[in-house]
Design a protein that fits this description.
Layout lengths: L2 E8 L2 E8 L4 H8 L18 E4 L2 E4 L12 E3 L12 H8 L9 H14 L5 H7 L11 H17 L3
Parallel strand pairs: 1-5
Antiparallel strand pairs: 1-2, 3-4, 3-5
Length: 161
């Protein structure tokens, strides 16, 4: 496989590198950049543990090539916290115990942020529908839904929409 030059902004840092054209974003994040907050859960684009933000929309990093995002900007879970202060959605997940084992949590948080960026007053039905691409094997989703409801309020209050 031949290599291609990429330039991509990840977590506000410009990365310029020659990579193989078939490198998945999740592998690049985890293996090349040691950004391990996004998880590999299924390798089939079903579970949502690998979610990242691209233009304020959650996308699955296991189903997109780095080359497809050449020149683009993405944000991973590692870049949500600013100066030691949790992002409002992270804070809401902590407040509402929106996690169990934590494996799916980064993807759930990213999906919650993406939803609120599209709909800043989501109701329970909106949230549950939006989370259809995120699987959690530990919870009944009730605390996750409560977390996203509170996260939406906190994001509105902080102006992070």
């Amino acid at each position: 496989m031949h290599e291609i030059a990429i330039k991509i902004t990840i977590n506000d840092e410009i990365i310029e590198k020659d990579i193989k054209a078939n490198v998945l974003l999740i592998d690049f994040l985890r293996d090349e950049l040691n950004l391990t907050g996004s998880h590999i859960g299924c390798d089939t684009s079903q579970c949502g543990a690998c979610m990242i933000l691209h233009n304020d929309k959650a996308i699955k990093a296991c189903s997109i090539l780095v080359a497809q995002l050449n020149g683009e900007k993405i944000t991973t879970i590692e870049n949500l916290q600013k100066d030691g202060v949790l992002h409002p959605m992270q804070e809401a997940f902590r407040n509402n115990h929106g996690l169990q084992c934590g494996f799916c949590t980064p993807g759930m948080i990213i999906s919650g942020i993406s939803l609120v960026k599209q709909n800043d007053k989501p109701n329970e039905d909106n949230i549950r529908k939006h989370l259809e691409g995120n699987l959690c094997r530990c919870t009944g989703y009730q605390n996750i839904v409560k977390s996203i409801e509170e996260g939406a309020i906190k994001m509105r209050e902080s102006g992070d929409i």
